[in-house]
From TrEMBL:
<dbReference type="InterPro" id="IPR050097">
    <property type="entry name" value="Ferredoxin-NADP_redctase_2"/>
</dbReference>
<keyword id="KW-0285">Flavoprotein</keyword>
<dbReference type="GO" id="GO:0004791">
    <property type="term" value="F:thioredoxin-disulfide reductase (NADPH) activity"/>
</dbReference>
<dbReference type="Pfam" id="PF07992">
    <property type="entry name" value="Pyr_redox_2"/>
</dbReference>
<keyword id="KW-0560">Oxidoreductase</keyword>
<dbReference type="InterPro" id="IPR023753">
    <property type="entry name" value="FAD/NAD-binding_dom"/>
</dbReference>
<protein>
    <submittedName>
        <fullName>FAD-binding protein</fullName>
    </submittedName>
</protein>
<feature type="domain" description="FAD/NAD(P)-binding">
    <location>
        <begin position="240"/>
        <end position="548"/>
    </location>
</feature>
<dbReference type="InterPro" id="IPR036188">
    <property type="entry name" value="FAD/NAD-bd_sf"/>
</dbReference>
């Protein structure tokens, strides 16, 4: 057992309503160190002492008006002291109408995370629902897990170890990392029959008690060992719908398909949630006024789909799709087995384009990361970090990284972010003192420091071609979308960029009786496409979810046609 860590701090700041806050937060005192402060100055002292003592601060809750300092000024100071803490403003009911309007622009710019009405009595569960959401988000993205049902045994600096940690984070599996010479490392090594190959993954919970210590060579292999293989599907079973990809489109299709009685199988090559699962905070998704992380959204959707009967197989990319002929089912081929289905939804999404600079490609996992890599963000403390990309994913990554890094610089080739990023993110970036945007700039080279980690980048102004070498402790690449659907047969037509054509966009020779396929249908009957992989899609989480749900109604229409034989 690990010794219990000091509980994270919740700081309550108010001059006139500290007693109300103290009463409301009494319920959290078992798990958190709840500390009161009557002024901004007292709050500063508490936070400075917490930093000196190495304590984590999970949440700062402040009255909208303080006796000794303007609240927004104090909030700026607190963010500098504890950048990873969540920030909540409470407003007494008699001032809520006026102050919620005046504070809303600062909320939009990310000065704090949300504001709420000061509770008027006991059991204000709507208030506490918001508080628990914030603490849960903090725990998932900042805190070190106190549970180690999965132990990663590894020396420092192994890229695969970081990839496995990111995989487990996105799966919502609590884990901790230990060196080989620790007691936990020695326990795992004692369970091996031969020499170790790091990283080791020791599954310690009762669910995995009969499994040996694993030595995975990839996250896909680990996923297959934990979640099973497609070959687990009974040989004689033909499912109603097989979904390829578990991003927002695939997850929505799984939820709607399974809830409407369709036998549903989802095959995901890597991690549930897809590219969206790497987003630290999605603030413009319908129904989540305080935002939701892509990881949490993916986890909830997966649980929801499983509740309705959907089956998930993780870690096995589809290598071939054999369309059924003469009414036969379609066959999806993976290295772990085959799945036969009456209909198929292609929702495999896209991947970030490669930078193509050999010296930096060699450092992937050693300071260079494709995607937001939320796990790696925790290791960027006191580093100068660069984010390449101008889309929402890049903006969300920069905001999250700024909680840890000393500085974050967004590199874009355009003059500004206006054409590619949502305004709420542009505003939040502009108000964050740790984030800068460097326009008209590209990376032309980079290399490692003495430890083998990323140490420097060479930047080039795309207008003047003037170059500059800068120190860099982290590089996060979110540069455009590249489809990966070479496994699709030629009959499933694609555009010049490789995205799947559907509906009226398919070539006219594929039309039947002068009519195009349905909006999300491909040239091949019974094969549909949704989300980012589809040509002309919006590349947004909400639109992908909508397409995944809409595809299910088209599947129903297709299945109501001539019955597809179920024999092989």
């Amino acid at each position: 057992m690990n010794p219990p860590a000091s509980p994270p701090v919740i700081l309550l700041v108010s001059g006139d309503h500290l007693d109300v806050l103290a009463e409301q937060f009494h319920r959290y005192e078992r798990e958190y160190d709840v500390r009161p402060a009557g002024t901004a100055a007292e709050a500063n002292a508490v936070l400075k002492e917490a930093r000196r003592s190495g304590l984590q601060v999970a949440l700062v809750v402040t009255d909208s008006q303080l006796p000794d300092e303007q609240m927004l000024v104090a909030m700026h100071d607190w963010r500098s002291l504890v950048p990873t803490a969540r920030r909540l403003v409470v407003i007494p009911i008699d001032r809520f109408g006026e102050e919620s309007a005046s504070l809303r622009p600062y909320l939009q710019k990310g000065k704090f995370d949300t504001f709420l009405v000061l509770p008027q009595g006991r059991r204000d569960e709507e208030f506490h629902y918001a508080v628990v959401e914030m603490l849960s988000d903090w725990g998932a993205t900042v805190a070190t897990s106190e549970v180690d049902s999965v132990r990663i045994i590894t020396p420092e600096g192994l890229p695969l170890a970081l990839a496995i940690r990111d995989f487990l984070d996105r799966q919502g599996m609590p884990h901790r990392t230990y060196p080989p010479d620790s007691p936990q490392g020695e326990e795992a090594l004692a369970r091996l029959d031969g020499p170790p190959s790091y990283p080791l993954v020791h599954l310690t919970s009762g669910v995995f008690a009969d499994r040996p210590v694993l030595m995975p060579t990839s996250t896909r292999e680990l996923g297959a060992r934990i979640y099973g293989r497609p070959s687990d599907v009974e040989v004689d079973t033909v499912v109603d719908i097989a979904v390829v990809g578990a991003g927002p489109a695939g997850l929505a299709a799984a939820v709607y398909g399974a809830s409407e009685g369709l036998s549903t199988v989802v095959i995901e090559s890597e991690v549930i949630g897809g590219q969206a699962g790497t987003s630290s905070m999605i603030r413009n998704y319908l129904g989540f006024p305080r935002g939701i992380s892509g990881q949490r959204l993916g986890q909830r959707a997966r649980i929801q789909a499983i509740r309705f009967g959907a089956r998930f197989f993780t870690g096995w990319p589809v290598v071939e799709l054999r369309p059924g002929t003469d009414g036969r089912p379609h066959t999806l081929v993976t290295d772990g087995g085959e799945v036969r289905a009456r209909s198929v939804l292609v929702a495999s999404g896209v991947a970030y384009r490669r930078l193509g600079i050999t010296t930096l490609e060699d450092l992937v996992g050693a300071g260079v990361h494709y995607g937001a890599a939320m796990t790696a963000a925790r290791e960027m403390e006191e580093r100068d970090v660069y984010v390449v990309g101008g889309g929402n994913s890049a903006g969300q990554a920069a905001v999250h990284l700024a909680r840890f890094a000393r500085s974050v610089t967004i590199l874009i080739r355009r003059d500004d972010l206006a054409a590619t990023m949502s305004k709420y993110l542009i505003d939040e970036i502009a108000w964050n003192p740790r984030i800068d945007v460097r326009p008209c700039t590209e990376i032309v080279d980079g290399g490692a420091d003495d430890s083998g980690q990323l140490g420097w980048l060479r930047l080039c102004d795309v207008r003047t071609r003037e170059e500059e070498r800068v120190a860099a402790g982290g590089l996060f690449l979110l540069i455009g979308a590249a489809p990966h659907c070479d496994w699709l047969p030629a009959d499933v037509r694609r555009d010049e960029h490789g995205f799947v054509l559907t509906g009226r966009d398919v070539p006219t020779e594929c039309w039947v009786d002068g009519l195009p396929p349905e909006n999300l249908a491909t040239c091949v009957p019974g094969i549909f496409a949704a989300g980012d992989i589809r040509s002309g899609s919006m590349k947004r989480v909400a639109s992908a979810s909508g397409e995944g749900a809409s595809a299910v109604s088209l599947v129903h229409g297709y299945l109501e046609g001539p019955r597809v034989p179920t024999s092989p």
